[in-house]
Amino acid sequence: LKSVWNQGFQNIHVMLPFVRTSDELRTCRDLMLASGLISDGPEPGPELWVMAEVPSVLFNLDRYAALGVAGVSIGTNDLTQLLLGADRDSELLAQTFDERDHAVTEYLRRLIPDARRSGLKTSICGQAPSVHPEYAELLVECGIGDAPLHLVEVVARAERPSGTGQQNDSDVGIGGDDRVHAIELARPAEVFDGIARSGHALL
Question: How many of the other CB atoms lie within 10 Å of CB of 194?
Answer without folding.
Answer: 12
